[in-house]
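Example 404.
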Amino acid sequence: MEHGIGDIQYCEKLFADFYDIGSTENGGVTRLGYTEQEDKMHEMMAKLGTELDCLVDRDQVGNTYVMNSQDTDYYLIGSHLDSVIEGGRYDGVAGIIAGLMVLKWAKEDGLKLPVRVGAFRCEESSNFGCCTIGSGLITKEIYKQDIGGLVSKAGESLENIFRSRQYSLHPARISGIRQYLELHIEQGKVLEESGTPVGIVQTIAGPRRFKLYLRGMAEHSGATPMCMRNDAMCAAAEIILELERIGNKEAVYQSVATVGVVNNHPNALNVIPGEVELGVDIRGIESASLDRMERSMRELAGRICEKRGIEYLEEKTSDIPPIDMSTKVQIGLEQAARRLGTGSRKMISGAGHDAMSFAGICDTGMVFIPCMKGVSHNRAEFASIFHICEGARVIYEYLKGEIA
Ligand code: HGY
Ligand code: MN
Ligand code: MN
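Predicted structure in complex with manganese (II) ion:
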């Protein structure tokens, strides 16, 4: 598929305009949801939309929309502009750029194709331990109905942040969406290693997340004999390794298990860890496998804590099931790629996306593009502008087919 040099240059311009926002010393970006850095990303998106002679709108939770018409019945192309801590510049941004490319092409072709490009707030769970907040609130996703008490890394409650911004934790439900489409970097190695330019997502692995609270006894690290301790960190260490074993056992079902957060209190060199909080993230495309991992986690944590005299409390913070993409949209995207002579393959998504929020309310589809060595959530994340254009073209070709 050839792309006019104008397309590549415009795509590069879009990427360059977002590039510096939230840059960190280590060469990555930190653009946490509902922080000043994410705000700047949304301001930049509004600027780019105005440059495209489009309308720009915001909803009651701070999501930004760039629209080529006021039609109340439209195609929504979305993704996110927040990032993880010291993350990459393509996760989420590639999808917004793809949407703006579709708006550009529709305008150049004079096509009557009602499209809104939506940037959804706080898709990453990095700031509040809860993912897809912006898209989950406006689609009334079950786990987003009472989240005002979530606290950010900086110690601010979501409720206070919303109050100070005059946002609503109970916004009007989004409406008028004909279909939701999202382009995203794969964040895995399949496309790059198979030399396939486009992936068509069949299922998004369901993220199930927990906070495990382990309470032992903070005591003097020098004066307390080894046989008289209730060391919460040692209990945590056993639990972490046991969870890895469970993940390996369920890997055959494409499930994974990760402990990404360890908070130790009081976290002092000469104090036996009294309280440890673990953040557990398990994912899978088969609910039965997720259920087995959840049961095993509960059993092993209880057993280890009892053996060590540690109090154990558990909080489930997310339970989004594996979500299938619309078969109709998958077939349409595959046909569009074929018309363009662009190679494609069906695949699953191990990562979560805003598309999870929309699959329950409209036909939803996702297009993946390769990223270098599958690296993501890391400053080394990289994807080619050419691949972003190529994936965006498949979406545009698909939409042209939808309105033909
Ligand atoms: O964590 C995820 O799956 C995604 O990057 N939000
Ligand atoms: Mn991400
Ligand atoms: Mn993402």
